[in-house]
Amino acid sequence: MKLWQKENTLNKEVEKFTVGEDYLLDKKLVYYDCLASIAHAEMLGKIGILTSDEVNKLTNELQNIIELDKKDEFVIKIEDEDCHTAIENYLVKQLGEIGKKIHTARSRNDQVLTALRLYYKDELINVSNNINTLKSSLNNLIKKYGHIAFPGYTHTRKAMPSSVKLWSNAIIDSMKDNDLLLKSVLKIIDQSPLGTAAGYGVPLKIDRDYTAKKLGFLKVQENPIYAQNSRVKFDASILHSLNQIIFDLNKASSDLIIFTMPSFEYFQLEKEFVTGSSIMPQKQNPDVLELIRANYHKILSYEFQIKSMGANLISGYHRDIQLSKKTMMDSFKIINDSLLIFNLIISTIKVNEKKCKQAMTSELFATEDAYKLVQQGIPFREAYKIIAKKL
Amino acid sequence: MKLWQKENTLNKEVEKFTVGEDYLLDKKLVYYDCLASIAHAEMLGKIGILTSDEVNKLTNELQNIIELDKKDEFVIKIEDEDCHTAIENYLVKQLGEIGKKIHTARSRNDQVLTALRLYYKDELINVSNNINTLKSSLNNLIKKYGHIAFPGYTHTRKAMPSSVKLWSNAIIDSMKDNDLLLKSVLKIIDQSPLGTAAGYGVPLKIDRDYTAKKLGFLKVQENPIYAQNSRVKFDASILHSLNQIIFDLNKASSDLIIFTMPSFEYFQLEKEFVTGSSIMPQKQNPDVLELIRANYHKILSYEFQIKSMGANLISGYHRDIQLSKKTMMDSFKIINDSLLIFNLIISTIKVNEKKCKQAMTSELFATEDAYKLVQQGIPFREAYKIIAKKL
Amino acid sequence: MKLWQKENTLNKEVEKFTVGEDYLLDKKLVYYDCLASIAHAEMLGKIGILTSDEVNKLTNELQNIIELDKKDEFVIKIEDEDCHTAIENYLVKQLGEIGKKIHTARSRNDQVLTALRLYYKDELINVSNNINTLKSSLNNLIKKYGHIAFPGYTHTRKAMPSSVKLWSNAIIDSMKDNDLLLKSVLKIIDQSPLGTAAGYGVPLKIDRDYTAKKLGFLKVQENPIYAQNSRVKFDASILHSLNQIIFDLNKASSDLIIFTMPSFEYFQLEKEFVTGSSIMPQKQNPDVLELIRANYHKILSYEFQIKSMGANLISGYHRDIQLSKKTMMDSFKIINDSLLIFNLIISTIKVNEKKCKQAMTSELFATEDAYKLVQQGIPFREAYKIIAKKL
Amino acid sequence: MKLWQKENTLNKEVEKFTVGEDYLLDKKLVYYDCLASIAHAEMLGKIGILTSDEVNKLTNELQNIIELDKKDEFVIKIEDEDCHTAIENYLVKQLGEIGKKIHTARSRNDQVLTALRLYYKDELINVSNNINTLKSSLNNLIKKYGHIAFPGYTHTRKAMPSSVKLWSNAIIDSMKDNDLLLKSVLKIIDQSPLGTAAGYGVPLKIDRDYTAKKLGFLKVQENPIYAQNSRVKFDASILHSLNQIIFDLNKASSDLIIFTMPSFEYFQLEKEFVTGSSIMPQKQNPDVLELIRANYHKILSYEFQIKSMGANLISGYHRDIQLSKKTMMDSFKIINDSLLIFNLIISTIKVNEKKCKQAMTSELFATEDAYKLVQQGIPFREAYKIIAKKL
Predict the structure, then answer these.
(1) What pTM was estimated for this model as a whole?
(2) What is the mean pLDDT of chain B?
(3) What are the residues facing C267 on neighbouring strands?
């Protein structure tokens, strides 16, 4: 029995189609929904809708669900549709009439929003931690190899001298800004939607400050229409901030794919990181870097999906948006996997000092040569032309 | 042991990351790879690389794999990485030295391309069949309700009279053009890549016409570099042709979401097709239509993913593109599910003749009124102004 | 006075915002609208709405507009909004009452659709011609340099021997398939929308076959709702077919950016094709290739703009779609410019035989070596391992 | 003569293709480049590369250019390529040898970055101001009509009571968060790239803090590789923050398109805001809202253009990115125009209290009815079912 079900049943084909993978995905949300339900039950006690005995029984059973879930023993069936229904059904089964009261003053819509938002907050902090781990590894790379110079490129052409330090610090600085953006987004989404119900509030005086504080939200998201409309927007902002991170990994991987080519070999991947070819005995392929590079496009397309899916629709919840759940969960997995694997690469990669040195050919110093003339008093534009003629 | 493996092993984390879900996805390709391997083995026999006994043994075992696979008993392990490796490992296990000969004159790259292309061809025909089923249902809808007039809209404003027939035929005609495009794309991709190896051919005289004919391809894809480069392009063209189909479903669903609103109710969904709300007892929601509408954006984002993933890369295979396998498989599922569910809706939807009639208000006939004046000899532009003033 | 205007005037800010650049863009459509208007006037004569004298006067003035337009003397003012209004206003000014009759039995909507479709047909043929020019230049490149071998790459790593011929033919074959797709799309869109009015036909017996034949369309687009809904779809299909073309240019440019690096220099750009740096005297940058590469992403984004803009909307015209006009016109310009410039590059590029030869290092022949063992009877998988160990 | 030109000239076709519209677009950047050049000249004076007399002459001429530009009299020719060249050419023409010294210790690359970033900062503040204007207008709407209730929708179905106040505040709250994000992005990009040259610094001790402070940047962007790589990222973050704003306008316009339908008419657009049809005398179309809605998709596609264009490329400047200049400038125009026009609508729109009241039908109160039972002690889930049965 679903939360919204009355007499009639849903066509089986339609049920399969509409439920989709929700009942599987929601495993990730059981914990968060229980937290929100506990806060909600306590609030209902505080405003006198539930007795303190009812509150205790409900919170105990919700704690039980959390424990079951930890042991992977809380099951969501396809007929349950999602974790919210499964949890309410469990409470009704355990507590009878009391279970039927948990849904007072809320809608599944704000349950979904609240559980997702708590989940997002944890995941964003995860990502931020993985960023920091990568920054440490890059700093270690600098300690080991930072002094080694190799060519800097513009237009995929040798330009001026670069170095392992310069290259690594570019990623570090970029990751710092990524983290700033991530934290800004985290702060913006850190609003409690609990109590906005289906987007138009509930006809009961509830204490939204209480649940917001209890759940650790920075503030209450006051406007219930905005609570619904913000789902697409917050998803999009999260994906954009993840996109900025994996853009850096895309670029760094692109660098390393070129810089580890045998023709250059400024960097060398560990043997156990490269893959071969089924036909060409000699091949040592950087598949791992190519897949990180490719993952950027997955995230990018996911961001586009959410942003196009949510457009041209009037205010208020639409089922369309439910599809974003999997998209968001996949995105966090892709980002965290990519950060961890890229971190593994940075932690083990070797710099080939000899090859770097060989590559530092004279044209890289043409600008320096021009500046030597500048320091003898020749205007830069003249100096530039003098050196250009010599090349 | 993977097809490309020599001594050294792959880092476990990297293996997990690079293999991804391939070993699961490839269940769909076992059958096609076996077909291609049989054709390949026979060709090797024909050009004298294999004896006819070897060919027989190989094709027998490949047939066995097909049988196992039908019973869902052919397992691809994560260490196998993909179906191609699993199949070769099976052959070596069963046939020893003979198994080691199956990979002569081919690369895993052309195996992947060939298996995928055979799979695509079957799926495209599936889609085409589902289009035809929907066209039939729409024709049935016309038979039942076609004569009923309801308002036609422009700018989401009542414009001129429309009808169930006109509306249904718009979808039918659009689906006919979708099918034309699908067939054009099918024809373009119907080229055998088998024998292009890793993108630069094989240093052996092989008979590519033989395998192409045997596998039912329209022609040989001659150029091996193009064989590789065409993967992204063909994937993109398939996705575009699927996108055109689901665009129609997105629009028709958007129509029905509006036309089934209680305020209009030109159409009525079966009770067993609507879902309710967990908080609002009265709600009857068209989730099923919203999800079809939303699926359009999944396909759109997948198309964008492939098209952006494959760009800015030089010729030749890159591992990036392997990620498109899941994207393509998911897309076929989404399209076919959406077509079938939309077909179910069209087969069961009711037209409310009374509500349609009520909605045929006078302003819908303003153009007709103007044309009555035109037929009395008044220039259209004058007639238009006369009628406009009256409204 | 706009075609739809009655008494009240449009707010000036709103007019500026809604007209946008239409009055400028429509210069490209004056000719096509005149052709369509001539066909329309003749048809009105044929069915007795206009006298033959009226038809003659209208067609004469429309021919005059075509002549004025050729000399760039037909002006569309911002108050005219678009070419359709400007043309009707001109006819009314010249012919008085007769001019007011030209709009009988049509809507601006089908004028826009018809003019655009005629314009698209011409532009698609243009593109096809530019494809053919490029194929010729590639064939000339093969004649001159085709025999020269250089390394083929997979995973951006040397793989097996390639050659100028193989590389050029990959582009030629791909362009042939592009042309097939383009022609398929051209055939699908080659339907006359004239007579579908605002999407629900006209309350008059008109002869749509006559105008379709007169304008050179393959067939009549029967269903008026589909005529409107197909705009987004046909725009999208055109953009997809253009996208396939510029994908090839993106890849070929990516190849050439790498292959012209001084470290490889298999190919050399003419001096007058490279640009320099304002600070680094030595730089010779392939900006021209980079911009062709980048243009791919413009087309890609335009395709997704149309595809996302048109979604989640009910059937029938929406003003949203008017924005696609500029997008389509820009796209044709980008494609044609890119094809012409890439053709110029291919016509002038040099192949450095010496550098190519130097790059043909032994690992490229590892597969060939393995096949020598195969021909001595060693199973391929063994041969592969023997050679791998030697490397 | 371009900044990078030596002896040889650029092929005319290639010049036209590579310069594109830069020479026109750069009108918007002349002012900012002059500011940056003045700061740069003063810094060169401070570190002893220029004499104070040279600095004075240069800054005077740069001030002259600013004045000329204000009067629209500073011309950038196509041969100049961009504003940076035009400005240096002007200085050389006016000051001879001294003019040739202005380019000391910088590259055109950091000029472009610096000018763009100053321009972005101003434009972002513009956007923020336009957001605030809209918030005021919404507050006025609340003052006038806020108390009026009309139906709230979920799944495009009547759900629970909403009101003008609730609806308006949803936009206001969303715009507040948009502004927070905008300001976060503004803070992140507020880093001075001046002095990073072509991405690898300059071989001179320059005072980057001085120029950064002088130009009003929050801080110096230390790493020169990151300065280059951040261009795509910062552009993308700006576009994302603009996207969030226009997403709200897309949704609010979608609401108003439905809510102004004659069948609902909760809101009414001013007569001078609606457009008509050329064939249907009765039509009053909300083109202005449709175009705002459509503009969302322009911004969305622009964001994806930048994000896909910049991917799969190694570190360092590529000419590809130059194409983003027009994209960014167009985006600011679209956002500001859309905000201003939407503000005009909100400032003039009428609420039809009578129609709103009529629409407040009983099913909107089903949830309230259920809660009346809850307050009589019936568990919510029971109350829900009791009410559902009555409907």
Answers:
(1) 0.97
(2) 95
(3) C351
